[in-house]
Amino acid sequence: MEVYTTEEQQVEAIKKFWKDNGTAIILGAVIGLGGLWGWRYYNEQRIVGMDEASAQYQQVMQALENDEQGFSQALEYVNTHSDDNYALLTAMQLASQAVTRDDFSEAAKQLKFAADKAKVPAIAAIANLRLARVHVQLADYPQALAALDAIGTDNFQSQVQELRGDVFVKQGNLDKARAAYSAALENSAGNNLIKMKLDNLPAVASV
Q1: Is residue 145 included in any domain, yes or no?
Q2: Per-residue pLDDT tens digits for 45-67
Q3: Residue 190 falls inside a structural domain
Q4: Where are the annotated coiled coils located (predicted)?
Q5: Has this prediction a pTM greater than 0.85?
Q6: What is the pLDDT of residues 68-125, one digit of tens each?
Q7: What secondary structure letter does DSSP report for 190?
Q8: What gap in Å lies between CA 14 and CA 186, rounded to an integer?
Q9: How many domains does the chain have?
Q10: Is residue 120 helix, strand or coil?
């Protein structure tokens, strides 16, 4: 299995998997149900609907990359397709765009939506990690810690602990920061950036 080393690579991999295999997964469920009952329950309209949703999502993404109107169109798409998996991915892309505009409040709104809607733990974890970073930008440190606490998977513990350490430094709680950075290093041995943050804590304390 290919290993993805960054959050963005993981998001792109999930989007590609859904695009390439979404219809096949539904077809597999149909066949598994078996016989006429299965086809009546998951009929052809369901498959066609998925293809249409995928096409609409691609259109929204293209518009989002082009102009201001595309941003508004993507917002409308999320609002009107809130139960759609594509709306979740759109919300994460909207959050990324909002950050580039320094609109951290909008980014937080979209990431909270994505984190709450995500059924795949990895997607929920990525959304909460990004949400925590946005809350740090907003100086809302309790909400940043709450977003980190919501991450239930162990796959991101190094990033979680490092960011938790950053929050504690912002709050002036250097003992907790030291513990968090140490935990991050245990999960990511050889990470020079985390080691530097840990080593620099006494200097931070003297500021």
Answers
A1: yes
A2: 444 445 576 777 878 777 877 76
A3: no
A4: none
A5: no
A6: 778 888 888 888 888 878 888 889 888 988 998 899 999 999 999 999 998 888 889 9
A7: T
A8: 28
A9: 1
A10: coil
CB of 134 within 8 A of CB of 108?
A: yes
Query: For residue 16, what are the contacts with CB-CB under 8 A and spacing of at least 6?
Result: none
Contact 200, 184 (CB under 8 A): no
Task: Please provide the DSSP assignment of 33-48 as one string.
Answer: H-HHHHHHHS-HHHHH
Residue 175 domain flag: no
| 26 CB-contact burial (10 Å; exposed 0-12 / middle 13-18 / buried 19+) | middle
Per-residue pLDDT tens digits for 126-173: 999 999 999 999 999 999 999 999 998 788 899 999 999 999 999 999
Segment 182-201 mean pLDDT: 90
Q: Is residue 72 part of a domain?
A: yes
Own/partner pairs, 168-177, CB within 8 angstroms, 24+ separation: 169/197, 169/201, 169/204, 170/136, 170/139, 170/141, 171/141, 174/201, 174/204, 174/205, 177/201
Q: Other CB atoms closer than 10 Å to residue 109's CB: what's the count?
A: 19
Phi, psi of 138 (to 5 degrees): -85, 0
C-alpha 98/C-alpha 80 separation (Å) is 19
Amino acid 38: pLDDT:
44
CATH number of the CATH domain containing 15: 1.25.40
Domain range for 61 is 7-152
* H-type alpha helices, 43-156: 44-66, 68-80, 85-100, 104-117, 121-137, 141-149
> Which residue type, as a one-letter code, is found at position 186?
E
Distance from C-alpha of 50 to C-alpha of 22, rounded to nearest angstrom? 8
